[in-house]
Specification:
The complex is a heterotrimer of chains A (596), B (323) and C (411). Chain A is of the alpha/beta class. Chain A has 25 helices and 9 strands. The relative contact order of chain A is 0.10. Classes of the chains: A alpha/beta (596), B alpha/beta (323), C alpha/beta (411).
Chain lengths: 596, 323, 411
């Protein structure tokens, strides 16, 4: 295997590419369309690595521009029309978004300033939005003004006006110096914050540095959008959008401030990303709460936004995505030609829904060995009387699990299973999480291999190692030990159910929370969800006040953990958590007679 | 633009034979807290003070240490929490209030072996940014043997913190470069990498370490990170534990070429002399942030001095301008 | 003609790269295994072409034979990368290229000064590579009075002055020196050669000028003794270029005196010494003096000095004025002073603004291409001053080097 291919999915490799990497590898999903066309403020919720940053970064004017200029050799119809759509948005100036990452470096540094944390938060966030807005302005002038001289004159007008609006110490006429001046202001203001924290008296000049940023949150940004609208002929109907990324660092007090301004800032649309259980509150600093459905809409992007679809459609969507992601990455390397995901890993035996692999007789044999009496009897009956129902209610549900069990029980020595292999199983094990997909691909490709095809045995081995590493990482997150132990417990329970206990037709592989769940257990579940190791089975109405169930509801293990626990990657029936945490006596043994 | 932070390694005898206007020690439960004080019995010290950890003020080991320090002449004590900096600022401002500008450099000695990094960062922050007189600060670290057993390596990460005076320019710089100082924590660097998502990643390893096999241990423990995040080691730099000046210089070499475009976040793991070097970088460069997380260990460990010292003198000239 | 300038290699235990070090496990070089490979990559990527190589001294750290051998190996590899033949390589020894141990012993034995000096150079003299380079000279006198050599080929005359000869091991400060009588001898030797039409290069190791120390505010005591005679020698003999090293800091300037002959003066950065302890992150450097022609009026050379800097893990990058105190490209050749330039710019811009809303520099360059050789700093100052005086506004354009000027009140 060429060394380029081996290193193609390395985390560090991502930085070697040009700034076009995001656009080159971007895959337009339904969630993205949702974000582009909505007329509301939106909260984008997704676990770590689910692609939130890529999504909202892509909304920014400079990236939409790059997308609209993208040239693709073998475009499918979808991709072409997406590029056309981007072109239209840019041309019509209908959607102008600014991407602002909320960085832990400055957010957490506010802790060093007792007593003035909120004032500084507002000041800092205002400066951040204005600094990033500069990128948007530059992108707009590049796009809408061709002539160099005209562009320089426009730059001059805009910078002078902004120097005024943002009360800069001097009037600046070019973007480069403007940026430096903002950096200067940040540095000086930091010194001033420090000085205050030391108990040293500030002079008037120091107190008023960056005065404009001490105003209402988002108002310097809003004022600037109006100025730019004038200069660049941006129609009144255009949407000015502010994308705030990684709001998971924010404390509750910060969220309150944000919520307050989201409610009142009518001229800007907000897109805010965070992890499922880190949107701490809907309350504001005034009496009224923020209204989900009215002020704010949730978008849940885990599993590529397929949680409301049926399983088959969801699986197909994720598989298509995984294949495309794989190919898009490889396109960045000139030296890697003609390798497709299916070519590399083949089809998945485990999820094939046909009788090619194993005919009905063999299947009935497996049912005989592994299922409980009730299921055995029902299977025989249905097979004799109603083949359709047999396929639907028994065969389809159990085929893969039976194969796993059979292989597990008949394994000799240290040979490895070949079953965790093939495009469909690998895609499922990614849970549609792009960063997880990259890690998975990286695991797959690393190791010795001389051909451009990886055998199922080697794939399984590597995916099991990948699966364990996904689990292990949670140990060292803050509070992660509890989550790790919790997941171990759940996983082991389901492993036993899958492999040891006699099967029924509805194998449980999800947990249902009881009414009174312990706080520490709930904390463990929340962490696991935020990190994408558990997923809630969602409420239908995505605009319900609490999109995510709080101390109630059903949760399943992420599919990426299935190989480690020898499970079939699927969402199964839910079982009471109580039963998992304190199983009935006898269940623990390798019993042959336990009930479902 | 002037560079005005000069970092020099110092010999043991120079350090003991110098005279100091102010000496600051830290008192906690570690046995090595008293080691440096024991070496200074013949040294001329005008103003000795001990910063004492309020959190462990009832720990018998700490009480014993403080008694010993008292016997060595360190009876002035300031009790404060490990992350309390306001008291540090107040104490240092008070001490330096009457120093005349233009006279001899003011000499300070700090034993940072067991000292909270917040405290000495706060001191450096004040001296670098708000004090007009030339100071010479000698930092001493007494090496220790760490019990690299599973008990010691069993810790959890706490909150993410930014060192005082080292917040960098993360608001206005659009790109981030991460420099990960690697120690014996396997997952910490990776957690931070996920948190920061830097555009550029570098790593620094202590080589040689304070004991002969520490370098290899650190390489093994951080193997995955080095392979996956540091481009198979190409972005890894080695710096010796025994030279803060060399480490600081290595950091400068990484920082200078990229500081126009990037905000540089130094993630602080690894041995204390490296933490000092990175703190110096955070204080002296405008766009360098220093980030860390406090470990929560299930129990305290016996950390004794091995006798080796790492001694560094930092000279800060007046009329400071940051790089 | 393109002259590569490298200096202060300090091949030895404290070199910054393993392939230049005699102690490859040392912390100074551990992070850089293959320096020449990285240099080659840069040459390929940037298509660097060079006709001659100048080395301004401190080739080794302590002048041992082993170090000279390693240095020779590396210089030859470098020359091969650039396709430069050996007879186009010129050098002077630095203070580190004399073996101080040998010198100390000789001084202690109260041997005659000339013998002590000769002894300290025995290693470099004996080494075949350096011997051959010196042997190519038309006049050979590097290690005995007049402590200088003169080379000449069809394009170039190079005079190398050994400022280190009298810099004794036992000195406190290593400022180097030149002797007036020695300079006279070199002058008369030079006059015997027909150097017309050739570029004239003067190379030495120590500083003939005192540079502001950007790192620490301490006195610079390393300027060579009799520096003004050295500089007078340069202008009287109408050298086009002076190159030196020693302090490891890159600086570009133009030197002129009562002889009114402007000379491009380059203080070379250190190519491969490990720069620790006192620089807060100064890089290593190399430079290329690219001579593009001669001024038709004053005959002085026109061209630019291009500089590259090396940092750990960043490799070779273009030099940057705010970081390195030398720009990536320093143009030279336009010898007009600020007032003359201001007058020219002022009248040009004024006329232009009578009929137009703005003045654009790149259009002006098309009209007057020789403006390119104006020193950037000088030009910027001139422009800024007239803008202030005339209430004009200076407006940089997106592509960094172009700019516009308009009336301040232009809407």
């Amino acid at each position: 295997m060429s060394s380029s291919l081996k290193r193609a999915f390395e985390a560090s490799n991502a930085r070697d590419f040009t700034s076009h990497q995001l656009v080159n590898e971007f895959i337009w999903t339904n969630s993205f369309s949702d974000l582009l066309y909505s007329t509301k403020n939106q909260m984008v919720l997704g676990s770590r690595g689910s692609g939130k940053t890529a999504l909202i970064k892509m909304l920014s004017h400079q990236n939409l521009r790059k997308l609209s200029d993208k040239i693709i050799s073998n475009a499918d119809n979808d991709e072409s029309s997406q590029i056309d759509e981007a072109k239209k948005i840019i041309k019509e100036k209908s959607f102008i978004a600014t991407y602002v990452p909320l960085k832990v470096e400055w957010i957490n540094s506010l802790e060093n300033y007792e007593g003035a944390k909120e004032a500084y938060f507002t000041w800092s966030l205002n400066l951040a939005t204005c600094a990033r807005f500069l990128d948007t302005i530059i992108s707009c002038t590049d796009e809408y003004i061709e002539d160099e001289v005209e562009a320089t004159l426009m730059q001059r007008k805009i910078c002078k006006q902004l120097s005024n609006l943002w009360t800069l110490p001097k009037t600046i006429n070019n973007f480069s110096e403007f940026r430096k001046e903002l950096e200067n202001i940040e540095y000086k203001k930091n010194l001033i914050f420090n000085k205050e924290a030391m108990g040293i008296e500030l002079n008037v000049e120091e107190k008023t540095l960056g005065l404009a940023f001490h105003g209402n949150l988002f108002s310097p940004f809003t004022i600037a959008t109006k100025a730019i609208s004038n200069y660049l002929d941006i129609p009144d109907s255009s949407k000015w959008v502010l994308c705030l990324d990684e709001a998971e660092f924010l404390a509750e007090a910060h969220h309150k401030i944000l919520n307050t301004h989201m409610r009142s800032a009518n001229e800007i649309f907000f897109k805010i990303t965070t992890m499922p259980y880190r949107h701490h509150t809907l309350s504001t600093t005034v009496k009224a709460h923020i209204n989900v459905g009215h002020d704010l809409e949730y978008i849940y992007i885990d599993k590529l936004g397929t949680t409301n679809m049926n399983q088959t459609t969801a699986d197909v969507t994720i598989e298509k995505f995984a294949t495309k992601l794989f190919e898009n990455r490889l396109k960045q390397f000139n030296t890697i030609e003609g390798i497709s995901l299916e070519g590399l890993v083949g089809l998945s035996k485990l999820s094939q829904d046909t009788t090619e692999l194993i005919d009905d007789d063999e299947l009935l044999g497996l049912i005989e060995s592994h299922c409980n009496p009730a299921t055995k009897e029902r299977a025989k009956r249905l097979h004799a009387t109603n083949l359709n129902r047999f396929n639907d209610e028994i065969a389809r549900k159990l085929r893969g699990i039976l194969l796993l069990r059979e292989e597990y029980h008949n394994r000799v020595g240290s040979s490895s299973t070949p079953l965790y292999s093939g495009t469909s199983i690998l895609s499922r094990c990614s849970d549609g999480n792009p960063r997880r997909l990259f890690r998975l691909f990286n695991h797959l490709l690393n190791g010795n291999g001389k051909t451009t095809k990886i055998t199922p045995e080697i794939q399984s081995k590597r995916i099991k190692s990948f699966s364990y590493s996904e689990l292990e990482v949670i140990k060292f997150e803050k509070g992660g030990k509890m989550s790790f132990e919790f997941l171990q417990m759940i996983g082991s329970f389901f492993k036993e159910r899958t492999l040891e206990v006699k099967l029924g037709s509805d194998l449980p592989q999800a947990i249902k929370l009881p009414n009174s769940i312990e706080d520490k257990t709930w904390e463990a579940i929340k962490s696991a969800v935020d990190l994408g190791l558990m997923y809630p089975v969602m409420k239908k109405d995505s605009n319900h006040k609490n999109l995510f169930p709080i101390k109630e509801g059903t949760f399943c293990l992420a599919n990426c953990l299935a190989p480690h626990f020898n499970l079939f990657p699927r969402v199964g029936k839910a079982i009471d958590l109580f039963n998992v945490m304190s199983p009935k006596k006898g269940n623990k043994q390798l019993g042959l007679f336990s009930e479902t | 633009m002037k560079h005005n932070i000069r970092v020099n390694d110092l010999s043991r005898s120079e350090f003991i034979n110098n005279e100091y206007d102010l000496v600051i020690l830290a008192s906690g439960y570690e046995p090595r807290c008293t080691y440096v004080a024991s070496l200074l019995t013949g040294t001329r010290i005008t103003d000795p003070i001990v910063f004492s950890y309020e959190e462990s003020s009832t720990d018998p080991a700490q009480i014993e240490n403080e008694k010993t320090l008292g016997d060595f002449g360190f009876d002035q004590k300031l009790s404060l929490n490990h992350n309390e900096v306001k008291k540090v600022y107040q104490a240092i401002i008070e001490k330096l209030k009457f120093i005349a500008v233009g006279s001899e450099p003011y000499k300070i000695l700090i034993d940072y072996s067991s000292m909270s990094r917040n405290w000495y960062a706060a001191i450096l922050n004040y001296l670098f940014n708000f004090f007009d007189h030339t100071v010479e600060i000698t930092f001493v670290y007494s090496c220790a043997e760490y019990p690299l057993n599973s008990g010691f390596l069993d810790f959890e990460l706490g909150d993410v913190k930014i060192l005082p005076g080292c917040q960098g320019s993360s608001i206005t710089k659009s790109k981030t470069a991460g420099i990960f100082m690697l120690g014996f924590d396997k997952i910490g660097p990776l957690s931070f990498h996920n948190l920061l998502e830097p555009n550029l990643t570098y790593g620094m390893l202590s080589a040689p370490g304070s004991l002969p096999d520490y370098e290899q241990q650190a390489r093994d423990i951080n193997g995955q990170f080095i392979q996956h995040q540091l481009n198979d080691g190409k972005n890894l730099l080695c710096s010796p534990i025994f030279s803060v000046s060399q480490t600081f210089e290595n950091l400068c070499q990484l920082i200078r070429p990229i500081k126009e475009e990037y905000n540089i976040s130094i993630v602080q793991f690894g041995p204390k002399p490296h933490l000092l070097a990175s703190t110096l970088a955070g204080i002296s460069f405008k766009n360098v942030s220093c980030i860390y997380s406090e470990y929560k260990r299930s129990k305290s460990h016996d950390v004794k001095a091995s006798g080796e010292l790492v001694i560094t003198t930092i000279t800060i000239n007046h009329n400071p301008t940051k790089n | 003609m393109k002259l590569l300038v490298i200096s202060d290699l300090h091949v030895g235990p404290k070199a910054r790269a393993q392939d230049f070090s005699t102690a490859p496990e040392d912390m100074a070089c551990r992070n850089t295994p293959d320096y020449l490979n990285e240099f080659e990559d840069l040459v390929d990527k940037s298509q660097l072409a060079v006709t001659h190589i100048l080395i301004a001294g401190d080739i080794t750290q302590s002048a041992t034979y082993e170090e000279f051998d390693k240095a020779a190996e590396n210089i030859q590899k470098l020359a091969k990368i650039l396709n430069v033949e050996q007879n186009k390589i010129f050098f002077v020894p630095g203070n580190h290229d004399g073996n101080w141990e040998d010198e100390r012993v000789s001084i202690a034995n109260k041997e005659p000064r000339t013998l002590s000096i000769s002894k300290k150079y025995s290693n470099i003299k004996e080494h075949p590579f350096f011997y051959n380079l010196l042997n190519n000279a038309k006049f050979k006198g590097m290690f005995t009075s007049p402590f200088g050599s003169i080379w000449m080929d069809e394009d170039l005359v190079v005079v190398g002055v050994n400022s280190s000869a009298n810099d004794l091991a036992t000195n406190d400060l290593h400022h180097g020196s030149v002797n007036l009588d020695d300079l006279d001898i070199l002058k008369s030797q030079l006059s015997e050669l027909d150097s017309s039409g050739r570029l004239k290069v003067l190379i030495t190791h120590h500083h003939p000028k005192n540079y502001a120390d950007r790192t620490f505010p301490e006195n610079d005591c390393s300027i060579m003794q009799n520096a003004d005679c050295f500089l007078r020698f340069a202008t009287e003999n109408e050298f086009d270029v002076i190159v030196h090293g020693h302090k490891h800091i890159p600086r570009f300037d133009i030197h002129s005196d009562a002889n009114n002959f402007p000379i491009v003066t380059l203080s070379s950065g250190s190519f491969s010494a490990s720069l620790k302890d006192y620089h807060n992150g100064v890089g290593n450097f190399f430079h290329i003096i690219d001579v593009e022609g001669n001024c038709p009026t004053n005959k002085n050379i026109l061209g630019k000095v291009i500089s590259w800097a090396y940092f750990d893990n960043n490799g070779w990058i273009t030099a940057d004025n705010s970081r390195d105190y030398i720009s990536h490209e320093e143009f030279f050749g336009d010898v007009r002073n600020k007032n003359v330039l201001k007058d020219e710019f002022r009248s040009e811009i004024k006329d232009h603004l009578l009929e137009n809303d703005y003045f654009r520099w790149s259009n002006f360059l098309i009209k007057k291409p020789e403006m390119k050789y104006c020193n950037l700093n000088l030009r910027e100052n001139a422009i800024k001053e007239i803008c202030l005086e005339e209430c004009w506004e200076y407006c940089p354009m997106k592509n960094g080097s172009d700019f516009m000027i308009m009336r301040e009140d232009l809407k």
